[in-house]
Amino acid sequence: MADERSKVADKPDILEKPDILRVPAPAPLVTFPVDVVVPEGRQQTPAVGQRASRADGRLHGLGQTKYIDDMYFPNMLFAKIKRAGVASAIIKSVDTKEAAAMPGVVAIITGRDIPCNSFGPSLKDQPVLADTRVFHAGDGVAAVAAETEQIATEALEKIKVEYEVLKPVLDPLESLKLETPGIHAPSANIYGHKIIKKGDVEKAFKESDHIFEGTFRTQMVEHVPLEPHATIAQWDANGRVTIYSTLGRITLGRADVGRTLGIPMSRVRIVATVVGGNFGGKNEITTEPALALLSKMTGRPVKCTFTRPEEFYASTTRHPLIMEYKTGVTKQGKILGRKIRLILDGGAYCSWSETTLGKACILSAGPYNIDNLEAEAFVVYTNKTMTGAMRGFGAPQVCFAYESHMDDIAHALGIDPIDIRLLNAFEEGSISPTGQKLHSVVAKESILRAAKMFGWNGMDNGNGTGAKA
Amino acid sequence: MVNVTLKVNGKTRSASVPPETTLLRMLREQFDLTGAKLGCDVGDCGACTVIVDGKPVNSCLMLAGQADGRDVLTIEGLADAEHLHPLQKLFEHFGSLQCGFCGPGVIMSAKALLDENSDPSTDEIRDALGGNLCRCTGYAKMIEAIKGAGCIMRGEQVPAVK
Amino acid sequence: MKRRGRGMATMWYPIGFTVAANPSAAVVKVNEDGTATLLTGTVETGQGSLTILAQIVAQELGIATDDVHVVSADTDSTPMDTGAIASRTTYVTGNAARLAAEKAKMTLFEVAAPLLGVRTTQLEALDHKIVVKGFPQRNMHVGDVANHARMVSGQPPIGAASFNPETVALDPETGQGKPFGTYVYATQIAEVDVDDETGETEVLRIVASHDCGTAINPMLVEGQVEGGISMGVGFALEEEILFDANGRQINPNLTNYIMPTSLDMPEVEVDIVDNYDPTGPFGAKGVGEPTLVPTAAAIANAIFDAVGVRVTSLPATSEKVFKLLQAKREQQPKQLGSSPASLPSGGNGAPAH
Fold it and tell me: Quick check: pTM over 0.90?
């Protein structure tokens, strides 16, 4: 066995004689072409370090990967969610009679039907379906299951919701003020706070040759996975529900479904297939409990896929940040002290804000040796789309701030951006802002290697001329 | 209902569908060809790209009725019983796809390009893929694989990965 | 006129959750022919984690990647996983998978040792064989050992393990503590052309030097860097969710939410920094998120180098850069011509070649 395999591995299957394209004859669709060889990278030992191709790569190219929306079950219903469309409101009434009477509509539920209507990775402030209050325009207020997707979508129009519209708070700086009424009253608008203190930052500023300040802002963006959120729920006769979902955190999802519907975890099965992109946006439940309930009520499997607009306004987004930096340096560019204040726009619900707050705060000083540091971060509610986990959790935002700030300092002092970073960057054994001794540090190596690969030869050479004093 | 008869991957297929049904939904729901994906349903993302009468088309923008009598090629029609299409072979070999959702659409756009021009430049490839959004890969390994597939189709050696 | 600029950004990024427990569990079963199955609760979201985990298990068992079948993402049959989040899969789930494979391997060693006349501590697994260290000719094919284990010894080789990074809670007043098991470092350098009349930025080239500890699969690392940079370019220049005064999104669609297409991507050159982290599986750390962290900063710094304006808010759209350029011109005393010498200090981007 081993001998045959090493023979195949010697001949790279791609680079040997070229494969003349045959125009496919009108033949039955194939499930697996016969000639396919196991790629070399996957056959080599030792396995670590190989450019091994992915097992799902072949299936992707054949169009055979089954994503949730590619799955169809007999007797399946299709669900759609009615979205509030108002950013802040009290729900006075929900009238589903006309929608329920439509031919093809099989079941409708609202927030009242959810046994335990709250969830969240840390603060459980988010409802499965909004019940008494709406906190952002994408809040779901009802879920409809119908024979076709078309009918379900039309039924949404016929659901009448009466709102007492409230003035939304959209600016995080507005929300930060103590006199602004609490969006999630009685909870305060500031729902998270983090502080890092090291050394004596005011003393460091007094000893600095120069002080630099800068304020930076970043915007709300969306993950835009090519595959929209999708879920299918179905029960068996033993009272077990199987939920197929694009959900990334299935263990947490199972706990959430169990808790919101009041059923033991042993009766909940969550299955994820290959997901068409997550980037942080599919890491908490969305429609799963609602679909499970609709499926139970109707005795049929129920599928729900988000529309592309729902991906934008009904799923999590990246926290916008306001970042204030003050840095004291010597005239050679060595950082003596840094003071940072971060305000995170925390959207309508907490979601992954606690993690984002913590990471943004810890990372905000940059990969630099700073003995005197004060970094303080706040996250506040606003009536905008909930902000949650998105690739980087605050790091891309603070990096934009601290690296723009660093270049401003370098330019003012007439120092090459490379040199000022080499002067300050972490090394093996450096102490982080939280007092952790760092190991396996290659910050300076990455700077030097990138500079060499780019052709960054000092301040006046190569492409671009760099800043000049 | 409208009655539609067309050629799909070389075979004559028929369906009777509501008039507002798109070609995309007919392929997925009537013919079980779920390779073409629903990413936005309004022609912005290209995940639904198929080839109709030799041209790449957003199948979510074409009504099933408009496809009547036409010749449609989907991702499922590329490989034959013996071989993967060179695009499929190299997309796998170079790791060009990650989540794979945009894959069928990208490959169909690439096939349409290579059928017309088997030696495209990087810019021509970027142009051909301009209507296919991908969030995972940054397109880099797709471009490499498309160039390599062009080599195979021209009967030349595929250059090794840089 | 187009002006060329270059800008750099360096970053650090942690692996795993902040302080909080984020364990992963894994089960490895060795089949009677020496191939294996890995059970993991992680969900493949496109980054290639299942391939990486197969490579880690294969490495531990001395077999090939293709010999390991990965079963994932079913709460009924796969052990818990905290999720493919915080760039933790290679490090945390990878460590769990390696430990599980090691346990299964120990059963193979226990069976092979008496057959080879040595102690278990004298054995290693490589190239499909269980081998006596220092005497490679004294070996047994892993399939023969696995078959013997099951059929003769009655000891099916199964290993189950979990891993959670070591952390120390942060002091509420000073933030001091050990929030993460490890961090990664990276630098990106961007080369841009900025049109000083329209404010439009074109990113020509990005060089990215990334640390991921041991690169379990360099091809997949490159894929992450190239993909992350595409997200970073969008974050830097184009993407923004806009709200009206009533708090409703104005552009919840892909026509008006502008994200990078194949036409917007720069040439990307990827460099993987040689590194080894002893706390990670075979020295590996992670790479999923870090790849987009420094991109916007590098581009913003390159814009400053090209046309001397500092963008302090993202995205750096043409309109924004155009307004900054206008404001800058209004502050200057009248200049004759547009030669570099007449530009004020602060970014004297040479005209693009």
Answer: yes
